[in-house]
Amino acid sequence: MDHPVTPAVRALRAADVAFTPHLYDYEDKGGTRRSSSELGVDEHAVVKTLVMEDDAKKPLIVLMHGDCQVSTKALARQIGCKTVAPCTPEVAEKHTGYKVGGTSPFGTRKSLPVYCERTITDLDRLFINGGGRGFLVAMAPAELVRVLAPTLVDVAITK
């Protein structure tokens, strides 16, 4: 299957990560519900990459199950700051180099701290953005942990 060669794909190849590319018909604001139904996978296994910032406006990445939301209060408490809030799409793009809807935690423009919901590491396989809208990559959670060395957090709110 032909897939885009994004900064994320280059970073995954450089780190020798075994991944499989999955293209789907992207829909604006379709989110993980759209990608999981297009690919026929459980939305819980689709990991969204959220760009947020702390009270000092320092950017960070949060990886969360597609069918959950982030408790920003719990996240702020766990990482030791007053508040955490989503970045605007423009700010997120400036930090990552990716357009919203195509943000990958791999191959970001700037090196950002990564926080990962702990239960993501329990999945058999995860599907995460490959650096383009309508493009996910599947891999073992251990590979994500090996490459990104995220801080594991417990901040999920079930929708």
What does this structure look like?
26% of the residues lie in helices and 30% in strands. The protein starts with 6 loop residues before the first helix and ends with a strand. It has helices spanning 7-14, 31-39, 72-79, 89-96, 141-148, and strands at residues 20-23, 46-54, 59-65, 68-70, 84-86, 114-117, 126-132, 135-139, 151-153, 156-158. The strands form 2 sheets. Strands 1, 2, 3, 5, 6, 7, 8 and 9 form an 8-stranded mixed β-sheet that branches. It is of the alpha/beta class and 159 residues long. The chain is globular, with a radius of gyration of 14 Å.
Poorly predicted runs are none
Largest sheet: 8 strands, mixed
Number of domains: 1
Strand content: 25-35%
Count the E strands.
10
Features:
alpha/beta, two-stranded antiparallel ribbon, 159 residues, YbaK protein, globular, eight-stranded mixed β-sheet
Brief write-up:
The protein is of the alpha/beta class. Helix content is 26%, strand content 30%.
Which helices and strands, and how do they pair?
Layout: H1 7-14, E1 20-23, H2 31-39, E2 46-54, E3 59-65, E4 68-70, H3 72-79, E5 84-86, H4 89-96, E6 114-117, E7 126-132, E8 135-139, H5 141-148, E9 151-153, E10 156-158
Parallel strand pairs: 2-7, 3-6, 6-9
Antiparallel strand pairs: 1-8, 2-3, 2-5, 4-10, 7-8
